Amino acid sequence: MTDHMNGDYIVIKAKDSGVNVIGLTRGHDTRFHHTEKLDKGEVMIAQFTDHTSAIKIRGKALIYTKHGMIDTED
Predict the structure, then answer these.
(1) pTM above 0.85, yes or no
(2) Is the predicted pLDDT of residue 4 greater than 60, yes or no?
C-alpha cells in the first residue's frame, strides 16, 4: 500500500448549510491549501496525508474520527 493511503480519515457531516472545511499544509510554514463548503446533510471524507497536517471545520457539523464523534456545537 502506498504512503498516501495510510493517513487517518475523518468524516464530516454538515448539520447546517455553509460548513467550511479547510485543509492546512504540512511543512515549515502552515498554509491553507484547500477549502470546501458543505450544505446541510452533505458528507465529506477527508484524509491526513503528506501534504495535509490539519483540517479546520467552521460551522455546525458532526465529525467522526477513529477517536470518536465530535459535535461542533458542544
Answers:
(1) no
(2) no
- State how far the Cα of 49 lies from the Cα of 9, in Å rounded to an integer: 9
CA distances from 27 to 5, 12, 52, 53, 54 (A): 19, 24, 9, 8, 11
pLDDT for position 1: 42
3-state DSSP assignment of residue 5: helix
Nearest CA among 19, 10, 8, 9 for reference residue 73: 19
Handedness of CA 35, 40, 46, 52 (dihedral sign): positive
Per-residue pLDDT reduced to its tens digit, 30-58: 787 889 999 999 999 998 888 888 899 99
Please name each of the domains of the chain with its CATH number.
Answer: 3-71 (2.60.40.50)
18: left (phi over 0), alpha (psi -120 to 50) or beta: left
